[in-house]
Specification:
heterodimer, A: five-stranded antiparallel sheet, 59% strand, B: seven-stranded mixed sheet, four-stranded antiparallel sheet
């Protein structure tokens, strides 16, 4: 069964305390792995797309990496404004247009 | 400003009363999709559309209908809403993948701000 699993469900960090969020996937024919940020009351906001194992993308304090089985979102020296729910999603080749989301990791960064 | 617009943002209604949630995008995107988001279940795809007059079921299509008569609009129709359709709904759009990839949905999706439906 195609699925995407994120861990941990929730993560509390102190400002400046670096950490990583995990997204493991089991899909047939991965066509793209997406990371989104979602703030309360808002729609998901796109962060990164990764297409192949070994690929890395960076944006400010965030860095996303991809292996054949999982993706990591590394957060370096987080700030309170990084608090949000982070979602990963896999676009897979079973049928065009299919995108399956993980349940998300809720990140709280305390000052 | 590039955006995906959903209406209404909030709706409380009763079982069986037909309703339509509209979705419009101004980015000339080919691909559009509807999701529902529920606590503990995450985002689940309801229907998607690869282009005008081309729609297909996602993971949870039961009780919903869609149409794609124009490129910019992708309404979600609940013919006979039931309480288990109480949820937060998101519409999303994305451009077609680059020429030669053969895949429509490799591009990141742009989401609207959501419609919160309560069906009593």
């Amino acid at each position: 069964e195609d699925q995407v699993t994120q861990s941990p469900e929730a993560l509390r960090l102190q400002e400046g305390e670096s950490s990583s969020l995990n997204c493991s996937y089991t899909v047939s024919g991965l066509r793209g792995l997406f990371w989104y940020r979602q703030d309360p009351g808002k729609g998901p906001e796109f962060l990164f797309t990764l297409y192949s194992a070994g690929e890395e993308k960076e944006k400010e304090r965030l860095k996303a990496t991809l292996t054949k089985k999982e993706s990591f979102l590394h957060i370096t020296a987080p700030k309170p404004e990084d608090s949000a729910t982070y979602l990963c999603a896999a676009n897979y080749g079973g049928s065009q247009g299919n995108l399956i989301f993980g349940k998300g990791t809720k990140l709280s960064v305390k000052p | 400003e590039a955006q995906v617009t959903q209406n209404p943002r909030y709706l409380i209604t009763v079982t069986g009363k037909k309703l339509t949630v509209t979705c419009s995008q101004n980015m000339n995107h080919e691909y559009m999709s509807w999701y529902r988001q529920d606590p503990g279940l995450g985002l689940r795809q309801i229907y998607y559309s690869m282009n005008v007059e081309v729609t297909d079921k996602g993971d949870v299509p039961e009780g919903y209908k869609v149409s794609r008569k124009e490129k910019r609009n992708f309404p979600l129709i609940l013919e006979s809403p039931s309480p288990n359709q109480t949820s937060l709904y998101f519409c999303a759009s994305s451009p077609r993948a680059g020429i030669g990839t053969g895949a429509y949905s490799n591009q990141p999706q742009h989401f609207g701000d959501g419609t919160r439906l309560s069906i009593l």
